[in-house]
Amino acid sequence: MSSVKPNSDTAQAAIVELNGLADMFKRIQETCWKKCISDISDSLLSPGEISCTDRCIAKYMETHTLIGNYLQGTSENKSPK
User: Fold this and answer.
1) pLDDT per position in the chain (81 positions), as tens?
2) Inter-axis angle of helices 8-36 and 47-78, nearest 10
3) Max CA separation in the chain (angstroms)
4) N or C, which terminus of the chain has less Cβ within 10 Å?
C-alpha cells in the first residue's frame, strides 16, 4: 500500500501565504482604525469614517496586489526554463 504525502514545500508555502494575509489584515485593522475612527460612542460609522476606511483599505489592497504581482513576476523570471 502506498502512502500519499502532501508536498511539504507546497504546504509550507501555503502556510507562509496565510500568515502573510493574516498579518496584512491585522495591519489594515490597526492602521485604518487609528486613522479613520475617532469616536466609538456611536454604534454606527459616520459617512466620513466609512469613506476614510474604504479608501484606507483600498490602498492596502492595491499595494498588496502590486507587490504580489511584482514578486510573482520576479519568481517566474528566476525559474528554470
Assistant:
1) 445 555 788 888 889 889 988 998 999 999 999 999 988 888 899 999 999 999 999 999 999 899 989 988 887 777 665
2) 150
3) 63
4) N
User: Is-above-0.70 flag for pTM?
Assistant: no
Can you list the alpha helix ranges (DSSP code H) found in the chain? Answer: 8-36, 47-78
Quote the cell numbers at residue 54: 474604504
> Residues with Cβ < 8 Å from 60, sequence gap 6 or more?
24, 27, 28, 31, 32
Q: How far apart are CA 59 and CA 32, in angstroms?
A: 10
